[in-house]
Design brief:
The protein has 689 residues and is an alpha/beta fold. Helix content is 52%, strand content 10%. It is built from 30 helices and 16 strands.
């Protein structure tokens, strides 16, 4: 079948760059596709072209996607265009799906039983909790376990050695190497492997056994890879091994959209593609069909300042109809009140739409029963609501907005939820200080907190005070002052903390949090421990809604339950999502929340020209995250700015003379560790590949 016959039989409209990509079948090809350029359409069309025009058997083509959902979506789109029978013969797999086949085949041929795949995240968490407690001699919070889980995933996906793990350990502030080895040893002891091990083992087998590698190379002489910028170093290594026989490798991605550094995404593979695949061609798809021209041009202008990228320029296919709108507000808190009004407007439209749907459904039923029907109410005349998305960097950014929406009974839809904020050490500490103020006989809390407050107590003194308090049923503070055998200076400090504890119970929650942090020694503890205060801003905003510390503790627990149990408002047009979770999606209108120095970007190097490689990589990923957020908007983009907090990104977006940021640069990271190693998106329960 010729190209003309192909395009006649299957109605396909492509621009010149897309046509070139579809017809590139032999040899290594890297296709760099900007947001909204139709890469999935091109991938699906290319598969059809390979089969119908080049005579390649579908079974000989392996298409690698990033998630299980993406494999299903691509298979369905191929079936719609080229038929279900042909789609059923193609291989659409995630990298973990391929690795599972490699391990299974190797096990069958060698007669050796492979380890079982451990998919129960609760069991993994329990395993890590025991190891953490044994090595760190402290009880881990959920956030601690999430961070450890993220770091282990990072280590395996980046193929780090012991020295690199030790470098990572310095910033992790835990005995990471010991925990990592203990975790792997326990998995092996029980003949188990996790999802990351599945890739490690498959890679090792493919390297070690030529017969195994050759089997899969012969089975799949043509390999297509989608979302290559999100693929990790070990995943790229596995794909390179499979493709090494024919080098018929078609890789689609865009390093400008690589935002999963914490999951060990390895955009370097795109930058080094020609180096690792001699004779490779690099093709571009630069036309954005999604967004208003004003959005496309501003996004392209912004991302051009990144240095770790290929040269390309995103061009708009749509005309300019609107300007990007800046919403200047007094402070961060004002964003939430503004968005509440936006959500209430959506609610009215949503309610009217639901009512219209119900009436239309009743009329359809009435017609089916033979009853009369009016011309003005008809099921197929339902109007569709334009979705409005609020996008943000971290889950916690949305908490004050969720709090307001819940209080006012305004419906909303969340694309993802995370309760890590509520198990963060700072949040837990402040809640526990409030609980200790209410019950000064709680010696367990006292032992957890005495050194985090300005008591200046030694551990042996604190333990003695706790023992006497339990024995005699007295307040820990009274025991410290009457029976502690403390010097005058320490007694003075304890007396001050006792007074603060008494007073904060009578205050509003906001004043109580301020007292704890600024006057009871907790900020000094955070500085000693090098704990960032990013959670405090959100906690203070939530606290300002409560009239007492106890009500704040109760409200936090309520919000935690809301996020755990929130049922999705499936058709609700008001959507809350992290930028990460919105990648690959589009919305008519987008509001970007918390684009402020210290949040987005989380860090700004003092001098970009002198920045270390790891620091520059981390900062450029922050820029890519903002770029991805901008390019989710189709028609209208709104960005909040604040008088009290600077935004370097907004200065660039609106082409203002940049001001000097007051944000302290984050510590640089040794080796290949990303700035986001701590995991601002939960690994637990993620869509495994």
């Amino acid at each position: 079948m010729t190209w003309t016959e192909f395009t006649s039989r299957f109605p396909i409209q492509l621009n010149q760059q897309q046509e070139s990509a579809v017809q590139s079948v032999e040899g290594p090809v890297l296709l760099l596709a900007v947001p909204g350029s139709g890469k999935t359409t091109v991938l699906v069309t290319r598969l059809g072209y390979m089969i119908f025009c080049k005579g390649i058997a579908p079974e000989r083509i392996l298409t690698v996607t990033y998630t299980v959902a993406a494999t299903k979506d691509m298979a369905e789109r191929f079936a719609c265009r080229f038929g279900a029978e042909m789609a059923g013969r193609l291989e659409f797999r995630t990298i973990n799906g391929i690795c599972a086949r490699v391990i299974q085949y190797c096990s069958w041929k060698s007669g050796r039983t492979a380890f079982s795949l451990l998919t129960d995240e609760k069991r993994i968490a329990a395993m890590l909790a025991g190891i953490y407690q044994r090595i760190e001699h402290s009880y881990p919070t959920e956030s601690d376990l999430q961070n450890v889980r993220t770091l282990i995933t990072f280590i395996k996906n980046r193929m780090l050695g012991e020295e690199e793990i030790r470098a990572l350990e310095k910033d992790a502030e835990i005995q990471l190497l010991r925990i990592y080895k203990a975790y792997n040893a326990e998995l092996r002891e029980h003949q188990l492997m996790d999802y990351d091990d599945q890739m490690v083992y498959a890679y090792t087998m493919l390297q070690r056994f030529p017969w195994l590698r050759e089997h899969f190379q012969q089975q799949y002489p043509y390999i297509c890879v989608d979302e290559a910028q999100d693929t990790s170093k070990i995943q790229h290594a596995i794909i390179a091994l499979l493709a090494s026989r024919t080098e018929n490798l078609f890789m689609v991605g865009d390093e400008d959209q690589s935002i999963y550094g914490f999951r060990a995404a390895y955009p370097d593979a795109l930058l080094e593609f020609e180096q690792h695949h001699p004779g490779a061609r690099v093709l571009l798809m630069e036309e954005n069909f999604r967004s208003d021209a004003s959005i496309v041009r501003a996004a392209d202008r912004f991302i051009q300042k990144n240095t770790l990228r290929h040269e390309k320029h995103m061009q708009p296919a749509r005309p300019k109809q609107r300007e990007i709108r800046e919403i200047p507000l007094a402070n961060r808190k004002a964003q939430y009140s503004y968005l509440l009004k936006v959500a209430e407007g959506c609610t009215a439209a949503y309610a009217a739409d639901q009512e219209q749907r119900a009436v239309a459904a009743d009329e359809v039923k009435e017609r089916a029963d033979g009853g009369p029907a009016t011309d003005t109410l008809h099921a197929d005349r339902r109007r569709s609501l334009s979705p409005i998305a609020v996008l943000y960097r971290d889950h916690e950014c949305a908490l004050p907005l969720i709090d307001l929406l819940e209080r006012n009974g305004v419906p909303y839809k969340m694309r993802n939820a995370d309760i890590g904020f509520f198990t963060n050490r700072v949040v837990l500490d402040i809640c526990n200080i409030i609980r200790l103020a209410e019950n000064p006989l709680n010696t367990e809390l006292f032992m957890q907190l005495y050194y985090k407050l300005g008591t200046y107590l030694r551990k042996q003194d604190a333990q003695s005070i706790a023992d006497i308090s339990q024995l005699e049923g007295l307040s820990v503070w009274d025991v410290a002052l009457k029976h502690g055998g403390l010097n005058a200076y320490t007694k003075g400090k304890v007396r001050a903390i006792q007074t603060h504890m008494r007073n904060l119970r009578k205050e509003s929650a906001g004043r109580a949090v301020h007292r704890i942090v600024e006057y009871m020694g907790y900020r000094e503890y955070m500085e000693r421990s090098e704990i960032k205060d990013t959670k405090l801003d959100i906690l203070r905003i939530l606290a300002d809604q409560e009239d007492s510390p106890r009500h704040l503790v109760d409200r936090l627990e309520k919000l935690r339950q809301v996020l755990k149990e929130k049922s999705s408002e499936r058709d609700c047009p008001f959507i809350l999502s992290t930028i990460h979770a919105s990648k690959g999606l589009e919305y008519d209108s987008v509001y970007l929340l918390d684009v402020i120095d210290g949040v987005l970007p989380a860090q700004i190097p003092k001098d970009l020209k002198k920045a270390e490689k790891a620091e520059l990589e981390a900062y450029e990923e922050e820029r890519r995250l903002f770029y991805v957020g901008i390019t989710r908007a189709k028609d209208q983009l709104y960005v909040f700015t604040m008088k009290t907090q600077h935004s370097a990104f907004c200065d660039e977006l609106f082409q203002r003379t940049p001001k000097k940021s007051s944000v302290k640069p984050a510590p640089t990271y040794s080796g290949t560790a990303p700035s986001s190693w701590g995991g601002y998106i939960s690994i637990t329960g993620r869509n495994r590949r």
